[in-house]
């Protein structure tokens, strides 16, 4: 069984191809072409029916609205994906840097506090359980 | 040494050394050591923490398994996508994403009222059943024979391949002054060039022949036979004498 998105893509491609053929027929219309045109129009209606049927299968597909802006501006939507990935990676690196810095700070603080307040730190560790300076 | 001094200063102002000891000024407690102190926090998750000698001690927040310290790209299996998009340079145009789509799609959607945003802002009427057209309805699509009016003929018809070819030609020719119009009349330009080339060749041949003739003449002039034969003395010879 084909994936719902692939199915929809195929249907849309067929629909577009049908419309393209209608445009060719209409561009320089010949009287004998009326029957073919009528068939093509009916095919277009069937195509719309098929696409309408497929909408239930793609209900769970969420598209970010920003992608539409890219498409409306005639830009490649893959650029949006690229931008998102790069932003996510940058943010991930920033957060990792922060977490590492805080971890080091905590370890260093515990070392320093234990040298200045050894008794208090011993009590603190007793309460916290597993708090050990990991320098 | 510095740390020791600081420690002493801190100790002077610590709650233990205050006149009231480690006790809260309002509530009197019997426990002077402070080891039985508890912190009761209310709210969503009420809890009682034995805080010992520490004020404001709370339960540490639960550490979540997934944090920003992890490589989230690898965690969600998106490394392949990352390599795919970060490695190669993507083409800017929409047509490079959907190359099989006919017509011009790289222009802004607002220009020809085909933007996806407009579909969201003004959703079309839907919910009606889509039915095939009856023969009476199809009669509305009866067309007159003949080509489309000029204004509709070239709508969405600029083929991309042609454009690419023209671009290539432009590139290879290396002629900066050539415009699209010049490209259209390319055939004429070529014949003209050929003619011009032929003419050039013809001219060159003529020049070569002339040069040969002159050389011959000069040789004849310088040759001893020529001098003795003619009896004329060249001006050079006259001067040297």
UniProtKB/TrEMBL annotation, chain A:
GO BP: regulation of transcription by RNA polymerase II
Any GO MF annotation of the entry: transcription coregulator activity
Keywords linked to the UniProt accession: Activator, Nucleus, Transcription, Transcription regulation
Domain of life according to the entry: Eukaryota
Location of the protein in the cell: Nucleus
Listed PANTHER family: MEDIATOR OF RNA POLYMERASE II TRANSCRIPTION SUBUNIT 10 (PTHR13345:SF13)
Record-stated family: Belongs to the Mediator complex subunit 10 family.
Protein name per the record: Mediator of RNA polymerase II transcription subunit 10
Provenance organism: Bemisia tabaci (Sweetpotato whitefly)
Taxonomic lineage from the root: Eukaryota, Metazoa, Ecdysozoa, Arthropoda, Hexapoda
Gene name in the database record: MED10
TrEMBL record, chain B:
Composition-biased stretches (Polar residues): 27-42, 226-241
Main location: nucleus
Keyword Transcription: yes
GO molecular function, one term: transcription coregulator activity
Biased composition (Basic and acidic residues): 1-11
Residue ranges with Basic residues bias: 160-172, 208-221
Residue ranges of the region described as Disordered: 1-42, 158-241
Keywords assigned by UniProt, alphabetized: Activator, Nucleus, Transcription, Transcription regulation
Family, similarity comment: Belongs to the Mediator complex subunit 19 family.
Protein's name in the database: Mediator of RNA polymerase II transcription subunit 19
Lineage: Eukaryota, Metazoa, Ecdysozoa, Arthropoda, Hexapoda
Name of the gene: MED19
């Amino acid at each position: 069984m084909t994936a719902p998105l692939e199915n929809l893509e195929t249907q849309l491609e067929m629909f577009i191809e049908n419309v393209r053929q209608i445009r060719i027929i209409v561009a320089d219309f010949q009287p004998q072409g009326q029957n073919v045109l009528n068939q093509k129009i009916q095919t277009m209606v069937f195509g719309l029916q098929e696409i309408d049927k497929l909408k239930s299968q793609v209900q769970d597909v969420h598209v970010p609205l920003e992608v539409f802006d890219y498409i409306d501006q005639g830009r490649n939507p893959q650029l949006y994906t690229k931008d998102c990935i790069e932003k996510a990676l940058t943010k991930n690196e920033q957060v990792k840097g922060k977490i590492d810095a805080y971890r080091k700070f905590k370890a260093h603080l515990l070392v320093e506090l234990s040298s200045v307040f050894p008794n208090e730190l011993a009590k603190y560790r007793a309460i916290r359980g597993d708090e050990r300076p990991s320098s | 040494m510095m740390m020791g001094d600081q420690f002493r200063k801190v100790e002077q102002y610590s709650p233990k050394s205050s006149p009231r000891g480690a006790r809260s000024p309002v509530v009197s407690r019997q426990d002077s050591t402070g080891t039985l102190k508890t912190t009761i926090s209310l709210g969503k998750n009420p809890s009682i923490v034995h805080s010992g000698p520490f004020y404001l001690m709370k339960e540490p927040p639960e550490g979540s398994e997934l944090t920003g310290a992890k490589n989230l790209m690898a965690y969600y299996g998106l490394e392949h996508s990352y390599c795919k998009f970060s490695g190669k340079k993507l083409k800017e145009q929409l047509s490079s994403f959907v190359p099989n789509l006919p017509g011009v799609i790289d222009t802004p959607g607002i220009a020809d009222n085909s933007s996806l945003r407009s579909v969201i802002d003004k959703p079309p009427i839907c919910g009606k059943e889509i039915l095939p057209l009856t023969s009476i309805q199809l009669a509305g699509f009866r067309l007159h024979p003949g080509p489309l009016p000029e204004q509709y003929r070239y709508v969405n018809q600029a083929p991309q391949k042609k454009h690419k070819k023209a671009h290539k030609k432009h590139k290879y020719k290396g002629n900066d002054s050539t415009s699209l119009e010049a490209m259209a009349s390319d055939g004429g330009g070529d014949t003209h060039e050929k003619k011009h080339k032929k003419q050039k060749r013809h001219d060159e041949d003529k020049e070569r022949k002339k040069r040969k003739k002159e050389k011959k003449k000069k040789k004849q002039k310088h040759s001893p036979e020529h001098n003795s034969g003619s009896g004329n003395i060249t001006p050079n010879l006259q001067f040297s004498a």
